[in-house]
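ok posting inputs for the magnesium ion job
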Amino acid sequence: MPPVSPAREILRRLHDVMASSTSAQAKLNAVVAIVAEQLDSEVASIYLLRDGVLELYATRGLSQAAVHVTRLAMGEGLTGVIAATREPLNLAEARAHPDFAYKPETGEEIFHSFAGVPIVRREASVGVLCVQHADPREYAEIEIEVLQTVAMVLAELIAGAGLIDDVAAAKARSAASGPARLAGLKLVDGLGRGTAVFHQPRVVIEHTVADDVEVERARVYGAFVKMREQIDGMMGQVEFLGGGDTSDVLETYKMFAYDEGWSRRINEAIDSGLTAEAAIDRVQQRTRARMRSIADPYLRERLTDLDDLSNRLIRIVSGQLGSAAQSGLRGDTILLARNLGPAELLEYDRRVLKGVVLEEGSLTAHVTIVARAMGIPVVGRVRDLRTTITDGDELLVDGSAGTVLVRPSAEMLKSFATTSALKAKRQAEYARLRDLPAVTKDGTRVALMMNAGLRDDAAALDATNADGIGLFRTEFQFLVSATLPRRERQTSLYKAVLDAAGDRPVVFRTVDIGGDKAVPYMRDDAHEDENPAMGWRALRLALGRSGLMKVQARALLEAGAGRTLNIMFPMVSEPWEFDAAKALVEAQREWLVKSGRSLPAQVRYGAMLEVPALAECLDVLLPKVDFVSIGTNDLTQFLFAADRANPKLADRYDWLSPAILRFLRRVAAACTAANVPVTVCGEMGGRPLEALALMAIGIERLSITPAAIGPIKAMIRSVDLAPVRAAMAGWLEVGAPTIRADLTALADNSGVARG
Ligand code: PEP
Ligand code: MG
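and the output
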């Protein structure tokens, strides 16, 4: 066995080649000479992808007449297999491999052993580097690693020389990797087709060979320090949330972040002459290759965690910190992420964002609500995103089925088109209901309003013919801004919405930030909420930072001049909070009166009931308010003590459980007795069966996502409510965990349209 040349020597020589001012071809020729010599091989060759085909670009040891003549398709021959699979091959006897393809012009019949590695850029094969030897021997693992290191440098060299066709490479890779079907949790209905874009893009490594090893060591050291700080910070935030999947992931992150072995291997790679980025990537590739053979799903998941962490480290070290939103989307896109905050989602251009796929996610997390408001289908809890999908893959997302089709086959595309046509047909049926009232067969008229939060949402009022906007989430404007929106901007938004609504009522909810709707400029650095959902959020924050609330009150009052203005406060827990918030708005009104400004003709004040404590004080609250709106998203999480954003609890408790329905029935009855209109504005009301249950317990006003107006109206118009009411009364006496099965059976037996 020949002596193994250290990577350091090769990198030193490659550094000189890269720095030389010769042509790209001369550089490639120099590289094959160095590789052949250092790996003691008779042959070293470089194939590059050109027009979708692998072409021999440089060789030491094969016939020079074959250069630019020998060509192999992706998947053809050993070289083609390496490029297609992006996996190295190491064979003592090349001819014994079923994919061996003989190319006479190369004169390679005299060689036995063969080893090759892919040259990869932007996760696509752009070429292959291989060595051959006359004796039948397997190359040592360390030699394969040296080849992989050289392949990294080659990727940089050929990209710099303009020899890489990125688009062709991505296409070739997709074609080679075949279709796949991933299943997850249905979060937002709808179909979407587009190109895969990861929210956190992989960093493109521009420089692989170090000029100064000490500088690279210092860079990687600094990046480790920063990354550990970030992980520790994140751990602190989730520690008291009960954590769920997030804290499992962070535990693993922490384990890797402090793993001495990992940082030592990166430092060794730097010692051999790689830049910090290239060293991290090199070690990552090695770990991935080792772990790929592991079947245990738990360990495979950890591989994804390590992948995430490596990516984070490379982003820190290279300073490429932005998300895909910063670089802009190029065409119809399906966005992929482990998880997203609502503000992060809002950074994307909604015109081209056709779907979102998350590894985590839950039904009432705000990112889901925002996506629903934007009409973007979402599938959550999809595993193995990074290992199955790469940037640029074509994806079909079906939010109603909870599936993601990756690199779809012709068959898949056909059935997707059929589903789309069916959906369109159903939409057309809903559109026909547009001008018909939402009234049950036995005469109960239900007020159907829509939820909104973005300026463009108001357009949905006309499209759906909703009875008004029952919940305008004013915080969306705060989430999309990098800084606190100024009063003029707030006024202009509210006015535009009121103008679009015309005579239809609009209920503005004052800002509900905090919780999972964190905004960077409103952080309280002195005190980080350990449990943000139950922390300093919504009305609590607004009363605490009354300057913010005053500005918003002024903006609302000015926008509502001459009309009826409906203001609603979120997260009212006790009646005095409602009093305090109302007094704050009233003080602004008085100020406007004094300064002679025009005012709303009427201001109506409402409270959101989403904290169970308020239900105990309805006798005190109801005489003070003009209306009540029940936020079932928060109410459910507090009633069940189950974090609405925790994916592990996402399907644990049912909205159709007697606990919730009895609670809501009691609230509805108290409001009705006090003659105070009561609406449900949580996601629950947008689902046909749940909406039916709400109607059966006395709720006759719903504010729901615009896309649900059609299906809910169809349900309402198809139902005789009296028998459902009677049945419901009985079910709620029996303490079954859920009435879903009973209600479904009743609905189906009596021909209720369930969407
Ligand atoms: C709710 O909690 O049900 C609600 C409508 O408000 P949000 O989802 O914005 O918290
Ligand atoms: Mg809420």
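notes: The CA atoms of residues 375 and 707 lie 7 Å apart. Residues 369, 471, 473, 512, 610, 631-634, 681-682 surround phosphoenolpyruvate (ligand 1) (CB under 6 Å).
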